[in-house]
Amino acid sequence: MKPEPLHSTSIDFLLFEDAKQPIKFLLFVWRTLPEMRSANGLDSKARAYGLCYQSKSQTFAAIHLAATVLQADVIAHECEHAAAQLRRTLKLDDDEHDEETNAEITGLLNHLVMEELAKI
């Protein structure tokens, strides 16, 4: 039987002040690493401490974390994957958008995830 997440939500946000439509990503928090891995079709002992599945749909990414390893490095790592996907989706990977913009996107995603984790 496939495990159910401890917590799941869709997080909507405006990336730019003048944005007309929110952008969204999904956040799943599993009780344990083996549950997170199993629910995502991985071997329960795989070397994955978090996951970020990327999408080209309105929901640009799905971040999966395990409650037993909610460490800053794991969260930051998965948020970086999600930020990279968002930059590709919005075509922000050109010369016009610098390192500072990239850091701001990653920081915002980290903030949104941490804010949601505080509710659990």
Describe this structure in words.
- A four-stranded mixed beta sheet has the order 1-2-4-3.
- The protein is 37% helix and 23% strand.
- It has helices spanning 33-39, 72-89, 99-117, and strands at residues 7-13, 23-30, 50-54, 59-66.
- The longest helix is centred in the C-terminal third of the chain and has 19 residues, at 99-117.
- The mean pLDDT is 92.
- α2 packs across α3.
- The chain is of the alpha+beta class and 120 residues long.
Q: Topology of this protein?
A:
Blueprint: E1 7-13, E2 23-30, H1 33-39, E3 50-54, E4 59-66, H2 72-89, H3 99-117
Parallel strand pairs: 2-4
Antiparallel strand pairs: 1-2, 3-4
Helix pairs in contact: 2-3
